[in-house]
């Protein structure tokens, strides 16, 4: 079906126009350009005689300003999305400036993400792709129509080159700046459809690696502004002492020593802790250390001990009488398994993991009367408006959110707690901004960790070793029950993000997925690849176990199960060639894993060695082949795969949060282990463009195959020793070797 941009004239000024697509309004305008630099921390009102929330602004000096609607947290989205508009409007990228979008979901909401401003789920490019390309095409048609009136020629005789309209018959041309300065909008305005988009083969920017990321120079020279860098006139600083156990509250506070610290202005009792406001960061930090608080002792989280609960989850997964929510069913898997010649059963588990963003949680807030302004490294401006409004006792439309660069996000910065801190303290000093910065210890111990989970997988094989039924049981708490309760209720208790990735494209005749929620009270949240990060661990390791039972090559088995999936077969065949799958290695082995999560096909092979005495695994090389459909920026896709693989190896080998009686045991990077540079594998990536296929998400696609590829390599190296518990700590590896 052809989708058309519907245009409304008269809504904006003479030099601007408004378009809507699928209910999303888009403003495009001609006028003067703000002098703000790339990646400005505040989305400035683009000056000129038009509304300030436009996507595109063309200035008389031939500069083009394009809004970036998503949060830049190191994934390159501040380049990718504006590039889509620039491509189809034929803008000269050297004359383009990027401005971060203000908080306005009606204008900048992601069509693929509930229409809100939220960066996550590997959904940004997928959600905005068609809309932004159509905006670019519409802008180009408006420019051509306006230029035709200026040159007094039919519009069909005109063409565009970067930032230029050309009339080849007469040899005349106009810059976009000329059109902006002297042109008039045509009436009626021309419309744009998908037929007006450039064929990918003719694109200057899409599919090329020649466009550098817009955010990199400022990060290299130190001029980039992250949330933690925000400085405002008359600003105060805040810190919050939180209860050591979630859900507890302060009952008795001795703040005499804290108040005596020079520069401390306020000590504030909060429902979840004690807030400190002062003139300097150092003063608030010292005062926080001097607070003496007696906490309540009634939270049910005091019964939360992660090791004990994980064993409980595993028992529940194995107990087939425990019935949860049916998340997916195709065929009668239970009946097929009951009649199978052989049944393979396996349990896979993973511990809580911490987001470990380089920039800890922080936000700055200013409360003035009924209005609130927030400066924050947030993934969700729309959510931030709602959180801030609730705390301040106002409405979301009176909250302005300025999204800064993010020093890492991974889902953590879509949360509300650091926003609530800043607004809660700013309420105490109305008219003065307050910046709250979490310490690393705060960040580690009060994170919204990935859910603790256990999985029980049963696969039935017939007499020939063919799969007849696959049952996958996932036991974990819910993320959606806390973050999106209405959706959780609508889905009748199914949490799609927790079970995400359990559906696969392997050809099995009967497949069932069950979700058994465990509600033990501890907040859990979105963590890089969320459910896919552990569901693919179980699936890909079980595939290898089936291959062993059939005495066939695990690569050949995957190709057989994917016989009708050409894109999947291509990435597997490509990565096998890259790694020389059949070549023997002394003291090392290869493991393979595949994922089709987020609409992208990704296959990885890990080369590992093992110290049997210490139990330490060393990952030497990871080869990766990825097909994300239309590869908007191939070099950036490669970079994102390297990021995902590095994180995947880190969480598979090292990362672990332990909770004992409600208290988190880790506090900083000395106790929360992440991969070190000396331990990072050599990573080789091949990007396979497939322009005839829908665009896939890439931000999180690299992580899911890494862990199972490592585990499968260890199994091949050791003659079948299976690692089934993330992370693969040395003591766990030795226990498996000795089992």
UniProtKB/TrEMBL annotation:
Alphabetized Pfam families for the sequence: MoCoBD_1, MoCoBD_2
InterPro entries found in the cross-reference section: Ald_Oxase/Xan_DH_a/b (IPR000674), AldOxase/xan_DH_MoCoBD1 (IPR008274), AldOxase/xan_DH_MoCoBD2 (IPR046867), AldOxase/xan_DH_Mopterin-bd_sf (IPR037165), N-heterocyclic_Hydroxylase (IPR052516), OxRdtase_Mopterin-bd_su_IorB (IPR012368), TAT_signal (IPR006311)
UniProt GO molecular function: oxidoreductase activity
SMART domains on file: Ald_Xan_dh_C
Protein name (database record): Carbon monoxide dehydrogenase
Annotated organism of origin: Pseudorhodoplanes sinuspersici
């Amino acid at each position: 079906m052809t989708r058309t941009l519907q245009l409304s004239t008269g809504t904006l000024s003479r030099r601007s126009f408004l378009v809507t697509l699928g209910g999303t309004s888009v403003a495009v305008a001609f006028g003067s350009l703000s002098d703000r630099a790339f990646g400005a921390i505040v989305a400035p009102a683009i000056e000129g005689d038009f509304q300030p929330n436009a996507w595109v602004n063309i200035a008389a000096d031939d500069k083009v300003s394009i809004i970036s609607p998503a949060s830049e947290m190191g994934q390159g989205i501040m380049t990718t999305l504006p590039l889509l508009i620039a491509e189809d409007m034929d803008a000269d990228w050297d004359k383009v400036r990027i401005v971060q979008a203000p908080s306005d979901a009606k204008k900048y909401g992601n069509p693929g993400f509930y229409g809100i401003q939220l960066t996550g789920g590997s959904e940004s490019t997928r959600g905005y792709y068609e809309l932004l390309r159509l905006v670019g095409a519409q802008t180009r048609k408006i420019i051509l129509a306006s230029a035709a009136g200026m040159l007094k020629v039919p519009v069909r005789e005109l063409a565009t080159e970067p930032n230029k309209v050309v009339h080849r018959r007469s040899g005349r041309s106009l810059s976009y700046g000329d059109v902006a300065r002297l042109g008039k909008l045509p009436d009626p305005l021309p419309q744009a459809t998908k037929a007006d988009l450039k064929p990918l083969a003719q694109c200057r920017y899409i599919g090329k690696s020649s466009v550098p990321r817009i955010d990199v120079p400022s990060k290299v020279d130190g001029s980039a502004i992250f949330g933690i860098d925000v400085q405002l006139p008359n600003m105060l600083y805040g810190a919050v002492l939180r209860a050591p156990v979630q859900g507890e509250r302060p009952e008795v506070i001795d703040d005499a020593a804290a108040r005596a610290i020079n520069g401390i202005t306020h000590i504030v009792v909060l429902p979840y802790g004690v807030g400190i406001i002062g003139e300097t960061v150092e003063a608030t930090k010292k005062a926080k250390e001097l607070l003496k608080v007696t906490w309540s002792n009634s939270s049910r989280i005091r019964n939360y001990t992660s090791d004990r609960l994980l064993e409980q989850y595993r028992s529940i997964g194995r107990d087939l009488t425990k019935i949860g929510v049916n998340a997916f069913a195709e065929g009668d898997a239970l009946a097929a398994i009951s009649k199978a010649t052989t049944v393979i059963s396996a349990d896979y588990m993973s511990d809580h993991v911490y987001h470990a963003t380089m920039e800890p949680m922080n936000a700055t807030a200013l409360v003035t009367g009924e209005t609130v302004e927030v400066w924050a490294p947030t993934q969700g401006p729309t959510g931030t408006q709602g959180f801030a409004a609730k705390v301040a006792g106002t409405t979301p439309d009176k909250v302005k959110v300025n999204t800064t660069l993010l020093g890492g996000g991974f889902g953590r910065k879509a949360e509300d707690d650091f926003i609530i801190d800043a607004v809660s303290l700013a309420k105490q000093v109305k008219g003065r901004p307050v910046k709250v910065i979490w310490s690393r210890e705060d960040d580690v111990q009060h994170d919204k960790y990935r859910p603790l989970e256990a999985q029980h997988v049963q696969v039935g094989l017939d007499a020939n070793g063919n799969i007849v039924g696959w049952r996958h049981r996932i036991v974990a708490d819910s993320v959606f029950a806390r973050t999106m309760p209405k959706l959780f209720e609508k889905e009748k208790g199914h949490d799609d993000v927790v079970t995400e990735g359990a559906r696969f494209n392997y050809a099995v005749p009967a497949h069932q997925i069950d979700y058994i929620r465990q509600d033990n009270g501890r907040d859990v949240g979105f963590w890089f690849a969320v459910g896919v990060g552990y569901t693919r661990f179980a699936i890909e390791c079980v595939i290898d176990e089936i291959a062993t039972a059939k005495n066939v090559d695990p690569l050949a088995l995957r190709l057989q199960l994917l016989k009708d999936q050409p894109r999947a077969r291509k990435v597997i065949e490509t990565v096998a060639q890259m790694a020389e799958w059949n070549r023997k290695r002394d003291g090392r082995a290869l493991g393979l894993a595949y994922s089709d999560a987020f609409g992208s096909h990704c296959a990885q092979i890990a080369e590992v060695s093992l110290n049997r005495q210490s139990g330490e695994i060393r990952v030497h090389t990871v080869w990766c082949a990825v097909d994300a459909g239309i590869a908007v920026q191939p070099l950036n896709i490669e970079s994102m795969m390297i990021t995902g693989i590095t994180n995947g190896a880190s969480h598979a080998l090292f990362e672990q949060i332990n909770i004992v009686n409600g208290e988190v045991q880790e506090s900083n990077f000395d106790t929360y282990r992440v991969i070190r540079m000396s331990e990072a594998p050599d990573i080789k990536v091949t990007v396979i463009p497939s322009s005839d296929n829908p665009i896939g998400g890439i931000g999180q696609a690299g992580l899911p195959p890494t862990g199972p590829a490592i585990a499968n390599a260890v199994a091949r190296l050791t003659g079948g020793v299976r690692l089934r518990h993330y992370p693969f700590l040395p003591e766990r590896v030795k226990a498996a070797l000795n089992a």
